[in-house]
Predict the structure.
Amino acid sequence: MSGEPSITREADGPALLRDASAALEAAGSSSPRLDAELLLAALLGARVATLRTAVAAGFPLPLPVTPELPEPDALEERHPTLAAALRGARAAMSEGDAALALNVLVRARAAGRPVSHLTGRRGFRSIDLLITPDVLDPRPESELIIETALAYLGDRVAASRALGRAPQPLTAAEIGTGSGALAVTLALESPAPLRLTATDISGEALAVARSNALRAGVGARISLLHGDLAEPLVASRAPGDPPHLDLLIANLPYVPSDDVDAARDAARAAASFNDARAEGAPRDLSRIAIAAEPRLALDGGADGLDVIRRLIAELPRLLRPGGVAILEFGDGQGDAIVHLADGLGLGWRAALRSDLSGRARVVEIRRGG
């Protein structure tokens, strides 16, 4: 309107990213620049690739009134600290103060909050997942489960075609689906037709998995069942039915209880980023951040193998001859996992698969036949 001052809602991208990256590096982030880009992109409602292009070209960044952050009211009851951070960032953006909004998110991240809790999103392979504090934040190393599963499915398809047959539908399940990252990815990328079921003991996690399956267009191709480990799969079958799964995948809790407790203690000690920086205490945000994730999805008992041990014991009831179970595990647990698989008896064999860093991360347990 004539006579009123104009308000320019733009931000200096390079300066914002420079300051945020420096703060996150000091806080112990292993990927400070990426963390800063993800947080700023969420505030701007932009893709990271678009943000990078604009910053590299020196373009000013237009600010939306409402950022693409999770709705704080829905988190208030169970996650009040997260809700407060999101509310503060939203309020700053409504005033056109991108620096303050980003600083609010940076402080929450520096105190141990995963980036995905602040943005409500997490990329996994080709999909963009909805993430809440009720599910485990998907890790890149879990892609090894998918790669191992796709290799097995590809071999099954090749064997069928070598015999002149069309690939038949295979029966697959994911135990402990959480966000649905693995099940959704498998449904999208499988070279073989699948009858796919995903289970979880958490009803809140299943709601997130259902949303992600629908967003990816595979909601009708994944049956979601509520229950502990394989109980929903067994309960759906008649007594005396033979094992029915060709493929089972799982990223179950495998963090020792003492490590979970230590992460929570570290997160409490790092309640304030400024206090932690003043003390000069070196920190690793990747370890502290697990304190903000659901304990049910992390805690594997004294040795980290309680839940995996239970599932491996169930494999004879689940896998048909020629079937494969692919399970993720933690650092240094490989030998113990192989020992558990060897305990299944004759006809079972286990092979370890290593991630890009050379660490054994996944076991492939195959039933002969």
User: Anything to note?
Assistant: The chain has 15 helices and eleven strands. Residues 140-254+300-367 form a domain with the Rossmann fold fold (CATH 3.40.50.150). The two ends are 79 Å apart (CA to CA). Residues 1-8, 274-279 have pLDDT under 50 and may be disordered.
